[in-house]
Amino acid sequence: MTQRTVIRGGLVITAAEETYADVLVEGGTIAALAASDSDCARAWTADRTIDATGKYVIPGGVDGHTHLELPFGGTSSSDTFETGTRAAAWGGTTTIVDFAVQPRGQAVREGLDAWHAKAEGRCAVDYAFHMILSDVNEGVLKEMDLLVGEGVTSFKLFMAYPGVFYSDDGQILRAMQRASGNGGLIMMHAENGIAIDVLVEQALAAGRTDPRHHGEVRKALLEAEATHRAIQLARVAGSPLYVVHVSAQEAVTELAQARTAGLPVFGETCPQYLFLSTDNLAEPGFEGAKYVCSTPLRPREHQAALWRGLRTDALQVVSTDHCPFCFAGQKELGRGDFSKIPNGLPGIENRMDLLHQAVVDGHLTRRRWIEIACAAPARMFGLAPRKGTIAPGADADIVVYDPQARQTLSARTHHMNVDYSAYEGKEITGQVETVLSRGDVVIDRRTFTGRAGHGRYIPRTTCQYLP
Length: 467
Description:
This protein has helices at 39-43, 81-90, 108-119, 138-150, 169-182, 193-205, 212-217, 220-237, 249-260, 271-275, 278-281, 303-312, 351-360, 366-380, and strands spanning 4-13, 18-26, 29-35, 48-51, 56-59, 61-66, 71-72, 75-76, 93-101, 126-132, 154-158, 185-189, 241-243, 265-269, 317-318, 398-408, 427-437, 440-443.
């Protein structure tokens, strides 16, 4: 029997509109919307009725940048696909796109198969994959075509981390040329890793070993230079470009100029760059290690440019770059040498709430909140119209959100598998109350009712921002 659910009395918010409507869910999809006081809505019968009076009814979040079970720096990110997707559900995110990694010197397929094995049967919400290319050669270029045909339609390259993920300009150009022909989207970690390694070596030789120096050597100008270079390479190749985790004002300027020129260039930022800063990296003792990520946190004055970029569409998406490492035993690997601190922050559970706080603070409108957290990433990564909106025919990924609830973010209460919160003690307004994933209630009035294995792998179409 097909389960019918009606969500009644809430303010339905999508990227396009806000309206008081009831939502009818049949099976795993949205069947209809109707004005809450209409005869049509009153006539609906259901197996389950959810009262959303006084609440928002919003699409499930789409987090387009996560790193679950990622080997890095001699350790591995601490959230598994099971714990990470459960935490995502708690935070109102119902779809993630994680990064499978090509092992250096091996076939892309080996990396993709390994990530499928990690995720299959373990996810609490739906998931898809990007592909990290760590060794671009002729065989890899051919595999790119095959992967696009199978629904892995985006490829990440690194201008940073020489000897690990780094690709030189020639390799980047070849991958971009291939993407221009097969419809793939090139994602870029834009930092000048060769220059950064020189500055790291010089800092350590001078005894500057504390976590705060991580931010000082990874200079904003080197992010901007790499962003500019990536844009020009994409122009030469005729390919689209998506720059991940933009943190610096100068990099936003490069993206804005490219978009003004009509180029298919897109940008993402993350909550850590909007709410944290180099003040956190400079916390006393070794506490700053908790905030080591790349691109690094910037001085607070960069935040205004990021917010402005989100309002003006110089930046289209807010993802988390969720890559958690516990402080004890993992971040501590870098005591006495900041370059050995595993790079990454936890945040998969906090994104939707922090962006709602941005609405409360006046940085964003409610519809822009849904655009950058749900609709835009769904379109960017070929998940629309199934994901990112509330409309007939879409998957019933729906969040009932209490805009008046007060909460304090803390490691004591979060559900991510990590021993600290990057936002410890931060008081915010708004909280996820109930979450549906494909029509199944996975969070029921702040109780987890989902299960590992509910989440399905979603093959993706190509980027829907492109003609």
